[in-house]
Amino acid sequence: MRDNDIPMNLNCKLAIKSILPIFRCLNYLEKSVEKCKIVSRLDKCRVVFQFFCKHGIKRTHNVYFQDSQPLKILFEKSLCANILMIRPRLLTEAIVLLTSNQEEVTFSVTPGNFCLKSSSGESLDLSSSVYSEMSFDPEEFDFFQVGLDTEITFCFKELKGILSFSEVMHVPLSIYFDFPGKPVVLSMDDMLLEANFILATLSDHPSRVSSPQSQSLCLSQALRRTEPTQSSAQVGQSQASQAPESISRAAPKRLFPKDPLDSSCATETKRASTNQDDISEVPESVVSDMEEGPGPSQLRKFSCMFFGAVSSQQQEYASHPLDSLAIASDSEEDVSG
Amino acid sequence: MKFRAKIVDLACLNHFTRVSNMIAKLAKTCTLRISPEKLNFILSDKLASGGVSMWCELEQENIFSEFQMEGVSAENNAIYLELTSENLSRALKTAQNARALKIKLTNKHFPCLTVSVELQLSSSSSSRIVTHDIPIKVIPRRLWKDLQEPSVPDSDVSIYLPALKTMKSVVEKMKNISNHLVIEANLNGELNLKIETELVCVTTHFKDLGNPLLSSESASQSRHPEDMAEVHIDIKKLLQFLAGQQVTPTKAVCNIVSNRIVHFDLLLEDISLQYFIPALS
């Protein structure tokens, strides 16, 4: 099912809740499915998943998608002062030892040491959480480059999710970061895919206490929120009723490393590396995709995540780059639980 | 004020962890009293806990391989700290297969009990050290008088308890029917748990429990063995006590002072736990 005037890039988003059940029973999929075809049908705003199974059975799932504006993230991770690579298992075992239920985790590095800490709370009384800390020797890392002694703090929950993903992929995790406020990139690179998770880190900015905006995290992209009250008026979204504790996320985006920069991105590039205070305009379309209304305290927990998947076979499908995104392989790993 | 102790034996560490877990279930906030020979976990917050009090005592030399403390002063050679019980038990949980555990009193930005765990790394032979800073509050000397060992009242009946797990499952079901439970026992080895509402009356009878030999008190000697001594208590308090018992105790005794108080006296290997539940007024 191919659309002949398919645009080169399909930018859409699909609900994870719709996709997960399709691929749920891995045992069944491995035993019975011979081929899986994933096709986009723009005319009907659908992505079609077809399983060609044994005995001539064909299972078709239609998943509706929503348009989304792609956000070009221009962040050169190799320019980061600190680059670490570690087997995710080591970090996973360590984070279990952080006893408090805090939202954030801190990485503290010097050329001779890596320290994992639970974020120190602000209140100092009996009900405060326990502050935990543990050190890693640089020898435990597959790669350890520290150009800047620094301490970054970011969302713990995201780290846990990313670690479990990289463990499943059996790929070492690379961590790129600089000074606090600048995003941290957690990435994995494998034959099948390259994933980059860009997370905002808490800024050290002294004006942090003055307003929610300066309390919020520095981002390399124009994802920051305007005043919560303003944004609901500005955007007037039906999403305004979203639960306030949701963490704002950027629209998922495909990172095509070879994509040329177009002019609209040029200005964003410039802003990209500067402090978030400089980014004043938020393209309306960008804001419209995001969940609404975090309060000032939620802004502190702001994080953004981008996931890019690059198929190594992309070049072969140049003419119809997005018609077939994946073909079930024989050696697909059985991911349990 | 100084405190520094170390545990190297895994069995001792597990024992201490189990006690800490139990305390975390019995009291959200408790007092830790450190003295040269003993460690005590104390709950004596009459008002906040509705009159429930707890006194748990362990001999430090049975647990710690190294133990040094210096109290507030020479005459008052003890340290009283208030802490959130769960913080300690969670920190100890990370020490499940530790090579060594150190605890010390520190004052980083605020007073803490710092638990330092040395863990064997799965990948290599070296170890990783994890430190946990548990925030505490030092209790001033003028408040120590409220935190002394409760006096054991002269009980009317003293009886050995049945299996605590059985008691717990019974009381758990009873909780759905009534908030008010009557616990009664006699010197004939019989213990009853009773609840009563307008519609229904439920009693669970435990028999052949045995009674510990009492010291020669004329009051209890002249007591008819069949006579029940009873106390009306809040069922939730009894349930909380029972829920905290994860291990079968070495010895478990229940002392009842009619219409006044029920006193549970448990021995968990070498650690003693006393729990007092007052009668409902």
Automatic annotation (TrEMBL), chain A:
Keyword Nucleus: yes
Chemical reaction(s) catalysed: Exonucleolytic cleavage in the 3'- to 5'-direction to yield nucleoside 5'-phosphates
Enzyme's top EC category: hydrolase
Any Gene Ontology CC annotation: checkpoint clamp complex
UniProt keyword list: DNA damage, Exonuclease, Hydrolase, Nuclease, Nucleus, Phosphoprotein
Record's compositionally biased regions (Polar residues): 264-277
Span list, region Disordered: 228-298, 317-337
Subcellular location as annotated: Nucleus
InterPro entries: Rad9 (IPR026584), Rad9/Ddc1 (IPR007268)
Recorded family membership: Belongs to the rad9 family.
PANTHER family (UniProt xref): CELL CYCLE CHECKPOINT CONTROL PROTEIN RAD9B, DNA REPAIR PROTEIN RAD9
Protein name listed in UniProt: Cell cycle checkpoint control protein RAD9A
Gene name for this UniProt entry: Rad9b
Automatic annotation (TrEMBL), chain B:
Job description of the protein: Component of the 9-1-1 cell-cycle checkpoint response complex that plays a major role in DNA repair. The 9-1-1 complex is recruited to DNA lesion upon damage by the RAD17-replication factor C (RFC) clamp loader complex. Acts then as a sliding clamp platform on DNA for several proteins involved in long-patch base excision repair (LP-BER).
Compartments where located: Cytoplasm, Cytosol; Nucleus
Protein name in UniProt: Checkpoint protein
Domain of life: Eukaryota
GO cellular component: checkpoint clamp complex; cytosol; nucleolus; site of double-strand break
Keywords from the UniProt entry: Cytoplasm, DNA damage, Nucleus
Database matches in SUPFAM superfamilies: DNA clamp
One Pfam family this sequence matches: Hus1
Entry keyword annotation includes Cell division: no
